[in-house]
Amino acid sequence: MSSRITFNIIESESSFLHPRKGFAPFSERFQVRIDPLTGRTGHFSHFGAVKQQKLPFEDYQKPEIKGFCPFCIENREKTTPKFLYEILPEGRKQRNESVLIPNLFPYDVYSGVIIMTDDHVVPLDGLNEKRLNDAFSLGIEFLKLIKGMDQRHPYHVMSWNYMPPSGGGLVHPHQQYFASEYPGNQFMDEINASERYFKRNGSNYWSDLIIKEKEEDCRYIGQVGSSHWIASFVSLGIMGEIMCIFPDVFTIDAFTDEHIEQLVSGLIKVFKYYMSTGVFSFNASLFFGPEHQGYFSSHFRIIPRTFLNTRDFAPDINFFQALLSESISVMLPERLCIEVKEFFRA
Ligand SMILES: [Zn+2]
Question: What is the DSSP letter of 315?
């Protein structure tokens, strides 16, 4: 069954006369990998070239740098919007520190934001189990509420920019939750390819992928409850990508408190790995497919983000991602797996 998934790696090299080796002939190796689901390619080169840059968390608190933050407690009531009465009669919803509000700059018809903490600056070790559980629970509850009232937006997405290198406009921790007909090209490529795979093979790609990755045993990180954690074969992030698959969850309705606990538990392990390697920023997403299908399992992705340097703040994406729609990574998933696995043993 699992042999229907193939991992194609094109190994190649580029030769030149090296200035730091007395202009002797030199060959630099690189890889192109083909995503087994979508057929999209990703480059792996320049191995080890990117170093995570430390972020000046203390400076983010200084008034001259902090500026105005609408998510800080003293400003929230006046400056954040409220939901229409017919969506959420109480306007906003709170669960411990987490607060659900509409997005002032919505991505879609139903676009919610979770302010995750009272504190403005929260380093990774402050994103603890309680805060994460509250944020995910409230966000998932919002998506379930929307699904119950309007089925014209069949795809559900959580997305998360954490800290400035990720593109986050506010340092104050927050997540975005939206229901959409247009959830983005990555989502649509995946769901269309998953449907084709299902029709061709009569099985769910995501379940098959878990079996295949367990067999290969070089990118499979570990299991937390019913969730499976894998270093993605093709990484969307420059420093590698970790994916978590819930093979038996196909829609937002099926995502229970237990699934949230499993996601949070695995995520805490990933954060511990990130802290050990000096990751200060990331992007993350969580996808849920539409009703009446059994081929697009819910899955979560997380990629570290960094500035290439803090001299001129070069971002870690360039023409490859921005204009060629090609991912590029300096970290091989097999190495990432070995490093992260340590944190999943405990
Ligand atoms: Zn704030």
Answer: B
What predicted TM-score, i.e. pTM, was given to this entire model?
Answer: 0.96
- Ligand 1 center–CA 322 separation, angstroms: 29
Please count the residues of the chain.
Answer: 346
Q: How far apart are the CA of 164 and the centre of ligand 1, in A?
A: 13
Residues lying with their CB under 5 A of ligand 1, a single-atom ion: 69, 71-72, 120, 172
pLDDT score of 1 more than 60? no
- Cα(232) to centroid of ligand 1, in Å? 33
Q: What kind and span of H or E run contains 273? A: helix 257-277
- The answer to whether the beta carbons of residues 219 and 233 sit under 8 Å apart is yes
Compute, in angstroms, the gap from residue 72 CA to the centroid of ligand 1. 4
Token readout for 331 is: 């970290």
Q: Spell out where the chain has E strands.
A: 8-18, 24-34, 41-44, 93-95, 98-102, 110-115, 155-162, 174-180, 220-224, 227-231, 242-246, 282-288, 298-304, 327-329
Q: Say yes or no to pLDDT of 101 above 60.
A: yes
